[in-house]
Amino acid sequence: MATPGESCTGLRVWNQTEQEPAAHPLLSLCFLRTAGSWVPPMYLWVLGPIYLFHVHRLGRCYLRMSYLFKVKMMLGFALILLYTFNVAMPLWRIHQGVPQTPERLIHPTVWLTTMSFATFVIHMERKKGVRTSGVLFGYWLLCCLLPGINAVQQATQGSFHHEPLHHLATYLCLSLVVAQFVLSCLVDQPPFFLEDAQPLNPCPEAEASFPSKAMFWWASGLLWRGHRKLLGPKDLWSLGKENSSEELVSQLEREWKRNCSVLPGHSKMTKNKGHSGLGAPETEAFLQPERNQRGPLLRAIWRVFRSSFLLGTLSLAISDAFRFSVPKLLSLFLEFMGDRDSAASTGWLLAVMMFLSACLQTLFEQQYMYRAKILQMRLRTAITGLVYRKVLVLSSGSRKSSAAGDVVNLVSVDIQRLAESVICLNGLWLLLLWILICFVYLWQLLGPSALTAIAVFLSLLPLNFFITKKRSYHQEEQMRQKASRARLTSSVLRTVRTIKSHGWEQAFLERLLHIRGQELGALKTSTLLFSVSLVSFQVSTFLVALVVFAVHTLVAEDNAMDAEKAFVTLTVLSILNKAQAFLPFSIHCIVQARVSFDRLAAFLCLEEVDPNGMVSSPSRRSSEDQISVHNGTFAWSQESPPCLHGINLTVPQGCLLAVVGPVGAGKSSLLSALLGELLKVEGSVSIEGSVAYVPQEAWVQNTSVVENVCFRQDLDLPWLQKVLDACALGSDVASFPAGVYTPIGEQGMNLSGGQKQRLSLARAVYRKAAVYLLDDPLAALDAHVSQHVFRQVIGPNGLLQGTTRILVTHTLHVLPQADRILVLANGTIAEMGSYQDLLDRNGALVDLLDEARQPAGGGGGGTHAEATSDDVGGFPGGGRPKHRPERPRPMESAPVRDSTTPEAQSEPSLDDPERPGLTEEEDSSVQYGRVKATTYLSYLQAVGTPLCTYTLFLFLCQQVASFSQGYWLSLWADDPVVDGRQTHTALRGWVFGLLGCLQAIGLFASTAAVFLGGSRASGLLFRSLLWDVARSPIGFFERTPVGRLLNRFSKETDTVDVDIPDKLRSLLTYVFGLLEVGLAVTMATPLAIVAILPLMFLYAGFQSLYVATSCQLRRLESASYSSVCSHMAETFQGSMVVRAFRAQGPFTAQHDALMDENQRVNFPRLVADRWLAANLELLGNSLVFVAATCAVLSRVHLSAGLVGFSVSAALQVTQTLQWVVRSWTDLENSMVAVERVQDYAHIPKEAPWRLPTCAAWPLWPHRGQIEFRDFGLRHRPELPLAVKGVSLKIHAGEKVGIVGRTGAGKSSLAWGLLRLQEAAEGGIWIDGVPITNVGLHTLRSRITIIPQDPVLFPGSLRMNLDLLREHTDEGIWAALETVQLKAFVASLPGQLQYECAGQGDDLSVGQKQLLCLARALLRKTQILILDEATASVDPGTETQMQAALELWFRQCTVLCIAHRLRSVMDCTRVLVMDEGQVAESGSPAQLLAQKGLFYRLAQESGLA
Asked: Does residue 3 surpass a pLDDT of 70?
């Protein structure tokens, strides 16, 4: 056998009859044999120990002794025996006296030990549970090199008869090594004992062989399934433990806490920054973090993820080594093509080596991308989990300094930016290495002329940085405008009823379109700068090439421009151009990631709830007092002044303590202090037993009724039924489509305000806690419902009897039934005692009762609109009140069961329906399948047909210029050399430069045309969407979730703005570039068409598989990530409730489950991307191989220049193939946004806003007379009439009260008057004019309504008070003085120009209601509608408001809609509504005398 040590001298392998042709030293047979002898052993001895150490650390279960393992071991022992023979033969010959060269003994010995080591590795892999080995796969592949060369050599020598044993040994060695290589491509059986339970749908990666893993073929099954059918959650693989939230978050949290504990001052986390009163911006707490905040988080991330990052970096470095081997091989190949005397075998070898180098570059680069994407996924999971856990412990001061939107922004933007920066990190140093290697290459090719490339490159680099900086500025401006538009849009959509009631749509449309115009202006500038940057990158390559070629041909001694110099230079410059283009992007990405990282670090260092703020005992001790506060002083944050002073409070077990006081006295703050939510400045707080809390503003989850009530506790059906009945929810739930399994929607949008509050109370009651903290739970309830809830739940005989209850309330009539009463004033306890004791003292409580105009022992009504109940002496009628269920707004179309039957009132529906609630309606907006052609046409129509045609023409022109430039360079390279110089050098250079300039101009014009067309289309589509939504009737907003509409105006609009133009530009660029490459290859070597056609079929197959699956995965990923963000925002808003119920653990588990579900979609999506990239790049590499082999076959007829043009073009197409598919897929995914923004184009619209006939009535209505003529109204066409047969006349200046039970039709009359709901029959006349003959804005602008819920908008106080700019500052100050707010507004920064945060979130509810009253006073029309306008103010302020209304609207017609009767006792007439009809009408005295329905309502309210 020929051993590795045979001499290379004199061997003529390829043709024994001819002299061996001269070859490059790297291609000589001697070098190849030497490499084949030493590379495999070195490979295994270097990587083997590291691999064994890694395998040992894994420590998996051993594999069973399978047939595959047995065959591997047999082949291994056979190879050991064979190489033992190879070692023994030289020793025997030496013993016989035949001299042997040292390598005859050394090399077989090395291979013998290496084969023994390889066999040992096979054995250890079985012991440690390794089913397929990449290290051994590479080893056996390398081992095939030397036996293969020996076999070829011996076959060509034909010396079998002389040394048969030698030949047989060589062939046997080759056979055994090839067999081992084939077996290494297979995967062994799973371990005999599995450590973990196998998931239902495990990821097939564990079952895949090494080649399958390298090429991602193991994902083909999912792609094929997605091609055949729609993918669902069951089709997705289960998430591995190493990628789960539980595993990743626990690791990062452990490292984060360890690093924070080392730093001084971090044990209690950093204080809030910049929060100083009302004027602090929302996000100021996230800005300018302290210097030491970044360090702990950075170290924690590095310690958790460093191994994955370093392994990926190693793969990238190896990939780059093969990347730079391609230009060298191309240089050798063009040198071969120019040398007609070289052997054809050299060309074949070079073609194979170029193909293999390109393939290895692809494999290592895709492995790096795969690992980087996995790292991104894990990093996003870990940091998102860390942020969520921080949300659960944020202090009240920290929550006030930020909003739910800021936290969602952290998760959706900042964490995403941080994750994306992982790929850019290596770009900072590796790209600089690229640039250095490129210049070394250029120096070898062109000599000192390469220095000009450095000069040109360095001169263009500042330009690119300048463009990037300017573009970043305009991008930030666009983001600011987009954020401003998003806030205003959110506010408009959430308060659309108020806006439509006042006819303000046009004003808000103008504001939105003005902001939108500024946003699009910044976007246009940014995209134009991006076009310039693209041209600068293109021009840089062209300019460097032009200058280098010009200098070289004019200055250098050997100045001939041959094919090797020209096209290898272009190949190197293309790599240099990638580095130049990616370097500023990497820097910009890292800078953005640093800003996001600082924001995340600042958020994670925000002040947390003090765990020692309240001492809680899980079970009650023997002491009598269950709640005690001693000398307590509390503040919202360390920067804010104390809000409670000197609180000393003890509450015994079983006591009902009522807390009362004026607005801003600190009632809610007291409950927060008891929960440990406030910063304890001094004193102590202790609570014995479990706690349940009901917040003032009901917080509910976007789940079913039963999940909201049980709140992570076990389901107890009898107790659930009892709780629902006690909280007056039994009949409501019975009317829901799916009973207790009905989803209540985002923020409880499917429920009324009263239903949400009762659901919040039911959650606390179901808890069976020892202590109940109730923050005004009766405020949102009708009088009859309020009395029922108090009696059945809170009162002395309710479900909570025997428990300790603290009830904050404005409903003063319940005070006699409280065991103790605490009166707060200015953050201190004014007095405390029993009801009778406080009356005897004649102190603060008596003052409150006097302000409410109530007798000391009576209960004429509370301050909240729906909170008045019976007389304080007791509830009349011992039985349960006959209340109707409040109808949930979007569910009015659902068939309502008969709530009068005993079953409906007592039995909640517990059957789990197939399609609960609104599932069908919500799913109707989800798009499936491929995007329709009509969607593309509608987008192109928005761009404009002329601009589309012009853009395609520009792309064609610039690609023709690019093709001509390359072809002209090939002609230049083939010019004959005369006396060391080429003729026509100047002409060639000038034309080359001209073509390059034309290409640059065409590139800029085509790119700018795409972006400008995209801006035009996005502007038109947004305006159309805005108009479609604004012109929709109010019923549309009741049926459609706000989140869905916001998604259209934010995410989908952003996709239309940015993504679609960018993806369209990429697609056009890559498609035209692909056409150019195909033309170049077929023109140079027409024979390549034979191979290109099968490649195109494979390409189409890959494209079809990928696009169908990727589109579905992206949609699923978007939907699942929305659930994560929604849950994050929901938890942020209800974190106080979650902590009070000690439910942090279940909520954390739910977040982890949602995040894991999102990653279940994200993981196959990133695998599909790698599958496409790896396989299409291999197709591209095959095109390179086809171009090279066709050139070798046709070398006689081809010039070196034309071959250089063809092969260099084919090298550029390697990644172009996948980017065509990726761009097409991205474009199709983005086009879904166009479908969605056009969803509302065909929904019914409301009546015209203005009519030409209205201009003739400028003073209408001048009297205010209203007449209903057989008026009927229904909320939806399929529902029965909500109001029917109403005929009455309201005289001008008359004050009419409208009362009735919930669902009687009170508010429906007001909606009909404002035409928020159109009449189903009859009509309404105002001053003799039918309102159907009046435009909606004209009608609504002549009627003033003060709604029950106070509404403010983002902007200044002056804008909120005078939206249409119709009044002077003096008039505004007069209105503020009337509502007792002048002093308060004067104390604000900026006074009237003070910017309201959000929807007035920095003001109390009472202050917002007073501002709405001032707005109504300024409006002052002839008709006023009061919808419980004094709902949120204390009794004294209510009296002042009533006086102001009486003064300003004395001559106006007033309609007062009221749930409580005290508000209408001074009306001239009262309408009593019942079942949509006017049951009674007359003065209050007359109706009381009739002893009808009004009398019964008065009895329930304690007025009769």
From this structure: no
